[in-house]
Each structure stands twice: as C-alpha cells, then as structure tokens.
Protein: CCA tRNA nucleotidyltransferase
Organism: Leucobacter chromiisoli
Amino acid sequence: MRPIAESMAALAAIAESPAVHSLAEAFAAEGHEFALVGGPVRDALLGRAVTDLDFTTSARPDETREILDRLTKNVWDVGRDFGTIAARLHDETVEITTYRAEVYREHSRKPEVSYGDTIEGDLVRRDFTINALALMLPEMRLVDVGSASGNGGGVDDLLAGRIRTPGSAESSFTDDPLRMLRAARFAAQLGFAVVPETQEAMVEFADRLGIVSAERIRDEFVKLLSADDPVPGIRLLVETGLAELFLPELTALVATQDDHGRHKDVYEHSLTVLQQAIALERSRRPGEAPDVVLRIAALLHDIGKPATRRFERGGVTFHHHDVVGAKLAKKRLRELRFDNDTVKRVARLIELHLRFFGYSDQQWTDSAVRRYVRDAGSELERLHILTRADVTTRNRRKAERLEHAYDDIERRIAELSEAEELAAVRPELDGQRIMELLGIGPGPEVGRAYRFLLELRLDEGPIGEEAAVERLREWWASEGGGGASAASPAPPLRRPTERSEG
C-alpha cells in the first residue's frame, strides 16, 4: 500500500473532479449524506487505477433520482429494487445506492433489500473490511467501521494484505453466499490472503452457494479469470469445496495422475497451462482486455481425462479426452449460462488442443497444414497460444523440440496464407457455377460436388478455375453423373498419440 499521504491525495483528486464535486454539493444541499464507497476507496488507497465510481447516500432512490435529474439528462435505473440509480455527468458514469442491508432468505435466489439510515450500518453489511471503507463527501472524512472493533479495520487489512469479513463470516456468507466467490477473486486480483476463520466459513457454508443464480456465479468466475494471475483464487475455490458446486469437472482433475503419479497431476498441469497461456496472451496482445475464452479453454482443456483414463501395459492413457472434454465443457458452460458464442469457441479449442502434437515427429504436408487452419477457423490464434501453453514438461530437450516445431508450423501457415489466402480457404467454383457446369439444380449433389472441390483445394492448394472445371467434370463422370455414391473424403488427420505429458 502506498504511503497514507499519497493515498489521501489520490482520494482528494477524485473528490475534486467536476462530477464528484457536483454530486457532493448537490446531495449536501438537500441535507443528505453522500460518500464514495467500496472499491474506489480501496483501490485509491492501494495505488491501483480507479475505473468505477460507486457512491452511497442516505437519500432514498426517488430522492436520488430527483437530484440527478437536476444535474444531467442522462439518468437511468440500474436496479431500483436494490436502490441504485446511475447517471452520466462531466464525462463520468456514476452509480449511487441508498444505504442498505440486503439478505438472502434460506431458499431464495434473490436478496431482499431494506434501506438503512447510517453509513456505519451500510458498511458493516458489506462483504469484506477492505471494501467496507467510505470517504464522506464533501467533508473528506474516511469511515472505517472495522477499526472500532479492536481487531483492525479495512485500512489495517489493506496494509496486512488480508481478506476478512467486517462482522462474522457466518452472517456475511448467509446474507450473500456469492461473497465466498468474491473472496477468491480478491485473493487473486490483489494478491491477498484470506484469513483462516473466513476460509473455514467458506468450507462450512459452501453448500449455500446453491441458492445463487448461475448468471451471478458465471459473472464472478469471469472476473476471477480476468485477474493477472487467477490461480490463487482457483486454488481457494477447489480447496474450500466451492468449485465442486459449479465446476466439478475441475476438482475431478485433482486425483487424475499422469504417468502413474510420477509427474504432476492433471490439476496442477491445468493451472500451469492457464498461467502460461496468460503470459503468452500478454506478450502477443499487449494492452488488450483479458481473453476469457482462451483462459477458460486453458483451464478446462484436460477435463476429459478423468472419464477417459485407462491403465494399459503399465502406462496410463487418455484416448479421445479432447473430444470428451469438449462435450463436458459445452455442457458445463451452458449450465453456467455462458453465451452460445463463448461455449462454441471454448469447446472448439478443447477439441483441437491435441491436433498439433506429432508434428515434431513427422512434418505435415501442406494439405495437413491447410486442414489445421481450416478446422481452427477464427480460433487459430487462440489455438496457437493454447498449444504452446500446453507444454509443461521439465525435459528441456523435449520442450525445445516442441517449441521449434510450433515455430515452424506458424511459419508455414504464414507462408501459405500469404500465397493462398489460407484464412478463407474455399474452392475455385461456387455452388451456382457448379450447377451451371453440371446442369443440375439445388440439391445434395451440389453439396457433394462442393466438398470434392474443397478437399481438392486443401490437398493441392489453388489450381485455377480452368483446372477446377476439368477436375469437377472428371469427378462427376466417375460418379455416374449424379449416381450412387459421393466421392470418398480425404482421410482425417492422424490423431496424435496420447501423451502422459502436457
């Protein structure tokens, strides 16, 4: 944490900004308390960038709306049932919430909200002491409710790098079970440690997460994965049993050993792959937002192994775990209410993550490289990163061989792409031209002819329209002019030998 003088200067800079100054003066003029609260205060004290401005007030939602309507025309309800009104003024988006105390009933997925009257009452019901901090405006008074307990408050916990609840963990996690996932997220984002009593409560009340909607769990999981290093938070979720409730395929990896347990288990391998994928993502796309699709695929790429593990001839195999894992990921992500595009992309990456291995033993033909690009489609760049990250061997010679092999395949893809527009591989003839040449109308024969030309394009590269016409007519004649059977498809790429090392 930065020196206190610098921290207060950062808070003062926020308070003096046009938007915040206008709000503070307007609420004070109406006799209402008004405070910057939670994350912005925490981040300013830590020296982190403040990106969202969250405020709390003694004013009720209707009163907040009236005040904001006088300041700006851009006002909207974020969640009136939760007492939150948002506005856009002086190029800042702000959210203002009435003092509140929300609590889940035993079997409800939605919290019940009641409004409070004091800032202290609002703060003590928040998730963790490091977020139970408020800067009262315009007077610039810092409120830290935990400091009066004798156990230290939010500022002390920021200095010590610890996460704990303002009151009893039992009460906090009963009020909102999602806070247990938030503890894991903050542990990852801030590099803080969850104190033992709070972690014990996460174990005790893990089942309580069952009343929280899949959408809220998904959103919190995405925030965790977006951290610079999500692994400490993921470990906490697994160790407390929380992951078992919404991502059991991950916890199942813990007991799945490669190579008779002589090497790290699949769980540890998966965490390493995630970290390596994030490092590659940053190096290849500096400054871009976290790639959640890539990170989910890296974490879950081996979840098909427990179901496919077999002991054969003194070794362990996981045949087809790529295909099984893709199906499991698709099912789990749908249950967590991920959008269809994310589900499709993650599943495709998992399904293809083994495709490259074996290239270092026997170089692919240009045809095989084209198929690799065709099958990866829009996920090719992510597949490059995932495949490289999937190498966690401690055998330096093997790691270097795989790295050189992937350097080579990326080079060949680039060369073929430049020569052939590989990213948009398609036959020289489209469906309309096929029908004209063969004298047929729409129907399955057109599809068979198109697939023949596509396989030809993949095998031989661009051959030109004239040659494509000749080859199509030869194929059509061999088919009996639309007779019995379709052309035999090209053989699929050889599935790589299952590896005990990722």
